[in-house]
Amino acid sequence: MASSDSTPIHAPEYVLIWDIDGTILSTDGAGVRAFDAAIGKLGIEGGKLSAIGDWKGRTDRWLADAVLRHFNLDPETHAEALIQAYLESLPEAFQSGYSALIPGVEKMIERAAVSPAFAQGLLTGNLRKGAQIKLGQFQLWDYFTFGAFADDGFDRMDLPPVTQQYIADSFGHGFPADQVVLIGDTEHDIACAKALGARSLGIASYPGAQDRLASAGADLIVEDFKDLDSIMEWITKN
Ligand SMILES: [Mg+2]
Question: How far is the CA of 59 from the centre of ligand 1 (A)?
Answer without folding.
Answer: 10
